[in-house]
Amino acid sequence: MNENPNQRPGTLPVIEQALTELARTTIDEATDAGPGEDGIHTMGAAVRSADGRMFAGVNLYHFTGGPCAELVALGAARAAGATDLTHIVAVGNHGRGVKSPCGRDRQILADYYPGIEVIMPTAAGPVCIAARELLPLGFDTSGEHS
Question: In the chain, what are the domain boundaries?
């Protein structure tokens, strides 16, 4: 994975810090579970558009595979007319911090937003990595419908 060479791990720029804070406050206000408990809303996400707007969402857990917070945030951005998205982050409730997107979300991000910067957790702290770097050998549908 090619991390941003201008960024030291754990030292997110102000814009990415604000996006992470939006995701954190969104899930902290919306969570329906106590610490260590199962719940329907346990993850928050936020996405930033090129014009600086930020959009948040929370997951809707269901055993059938309800939408992850990242997908809800992407939908909120599109519903507001944002099409050029630059950054996305997911955060767990109760101070669990920045979380890595699941495989399904990685595939969706790589397919629809390959250049979006995903804020990812590392041992040294969060870093930004392009979505295309998170799934280098992802499923390719280009020849599936011919």
Answer: 19-31+40-134
Structural element, H or E, at residue 88 = strand 85-92
Comparing C-alpha atoms, which of 97, 91, 94 is closest to residue 73?
Answer: 91
Looking at the annotation, which residues are catalytic? 70
Mean pLDDT by 10 residues, the chain (146 residues): 52 92 97 86 97 97 91 98 98 96 95 96 94 84 65
**pTM for the model:** 0.88
Nearest 10 degrees: Cα torsion 120, 56, 48, 86: 50
Please name the fold of domain 19-31+40-134. Answer: Cytidine Deaminase; domain 2 (3.40.140)
Angle at 132 between CA 128 and CA 137, to 5 degrees: 130
**Which pLDDT score is estimated for 2?**
45
Helix (H) or strand (E) holding 130: strand 127-130
User: What are the phi and psi torsion angles at 26 (to 5°)?
Assistant: -65, -50
Which residue, among 125, 118, 121, 91, has the nearest Cα to 11 in the 3D structure? Answer: 125
Nearest to 40 by CA among 19, 64, 56, 23: 64
